Amino acid sequence: HKKTESTPFRICQKLCKSSEITLSTLSVYTCSLKNIKQMEYFVLFRRTNQIKEELRQVKRRHYTIAIREWKKKKFKNIHCLSVLIFLCLNSQGVRKSYREVIDVSWGDPHRAGVKPLSFVRQVLAACLYPQLMDGDKLMVDVKQRAQRLLKTCAGGSVGSYSDAAGIPQIIQSVSEYILRRDGGIPCHPENIYITPGSQWALTVTNILKVLVNSEASPRTGVLIPVPCHSTTIVSLTALGAVAVPYYLSEERGWALEVETLQQALDSAKGVCNPVALYIINPGNPAGYVQSRKCIQEVIHFAAEKKLFLLADEVYQDCVYGKESEFVSYKRALAEIGAPLSDTVELASFHTASKGLMGECGLRTGYVELVNLDPAVMKYINNLFSTNSCPVLGQVALDVMVNPPQPGDPSYPLYLKETQHIRASLAENVRRVEEVINSFPSFSCQSLEGGAFAFPRVFLPPKAIEKAKEAGLQPDTFYCMRLLEEAGVLFSPGTEYGQMEGTYHISFCIMTPTDTMEEILKRLSTFHKQFMREFA
Prior knowledge:
Layout: H1 7-19, H2 23-29, H3 32-72, H4 78-89, E1 102-103, H5 118-128, H6 140-152, H7 168-181, E2 192-195, H8 198-202, H9 207-211, E3 219-226, H10 230-238, E4 242-247, H11 258-267, E5 272-280, H12 292-305, E6 308-312, H13 329-336, H14 340-343, E7 346-351, E8 365-370, H15 374-384, H16 391-401, H17 411-436, E9 442-443, E10 452-453, E11 456-457, H18 461-469, H19 474-486, E12 488-489, E13 491-492, E14 505-508, H20 513-533
Parallel strand pairs: 1-12, 3-4, 3-5, 5-6, 6-7
Antiparallel strand pairs: 2-8, 7-8, 9-11, 10-14, 13-14
Helix pairs in contact: 1-3, 3-4, 3-10, 3-19, 5-6, 5-16, 7-16, 12-13, 17-20, 18-19, 19-20
GO molecular function, one term: pyridoxal phosphate binding
Subunit structure: Homodimer.
Catalytic activity: L-alanine + 2-oxoglutarate = pyruvate + L-glutamate
């Protein structure tokens, strides 16, 4: 359909009439136009599936040809068949310069080829099929963990329901983990809720439902960083809120500056009533890590402006900058002391989907609430009681917050595997910065944490014009050409938001090192050709 006939455009028109603001203003403060940009990603996603199917068909066709020739010539040696298949796959009939698409548009380590941690999978397997513990293939500590966790499940089965807030013993484990992480600052289990993922905790369940009044006039506003994952913005506006953007400073390594928060508040005057400040630390997708000083400045700002703090800290285990350190917002708040430590309201989110575990498919996370009024807590408890997190995901969460320790039978392998993931990530960071910044038309800020790179690409005017002719954003056009010609799927910066006139690409760096080398090799070849074409 033409853009003027699309559903998102009609929604935008209705919203403009109802709120009596211009379409250009609406594009800044809501995600209705964001939905139009998302349609561009769906174009990328659909084309990716088409290319994968084309490659499968080519491969099947060449396998068929090879087997037919093998039978026709009556070769008996299986090695001859292997040679024929190789020759067919490398024949002129293959239309693409690659045999498979590498998809690093998601923050999904396992999809990208990172191997699951053995201890996690062994405990999960033992809980799913307890008979595995009868033999001697599992370590003693694996069996002990599985047995302990099964005792916490109703009927001794992970197939049973759990309490709405989560299994109490696992909540206790999460509480002890937070206590250790924050240097002994008290953590109360009754303030913790286990949820089907951190985004679910933030949006569908309930924290935003408490904050957002969909019938208020002016509407409720939430300050959102740019860049920021579009899922959060979509969820916000679906609840009737207004996303108020504050722009991170790319020139200063995507630093969060309090001045920009004030500018965002000023821009919201007459449009909405901001009640919350959403923070992502470590950054997704920009890869920054906030300093303790920066965090404390943000807390003071939130206290002064009476803003509820929403701290997305899901990549807290992925910090690799030499001078970077993860400090939780809860810890920084406690270190400031009274009266702020007793009054600033905070929700902190973490998940088993990210970090070293990368168990995205298990959809499990938690939220800890700090300094909320008891009456509000009672209401939130009622909201959480409508859904409970799958028990298997809670098992994974227990393993994440309480991994094998020195002296445990599983510890040597666990240490080896986690060190390998960390070393691979550090090497990928080094190579991404080295290769990306070797091109004059690219700029990648230092990566300090998280699982993404978000480099800026300086596109030639001819490429920008060509993108307009294709009805795409320039960085989406770049990603589409990269997909077609190199078989690599990135996300365009337009999906996350960016300063007007700038263009970015985003890709997951939590991959095996050989995969990242292949990605950078394909990107380098493509980018040189692309820039020559549109010079």
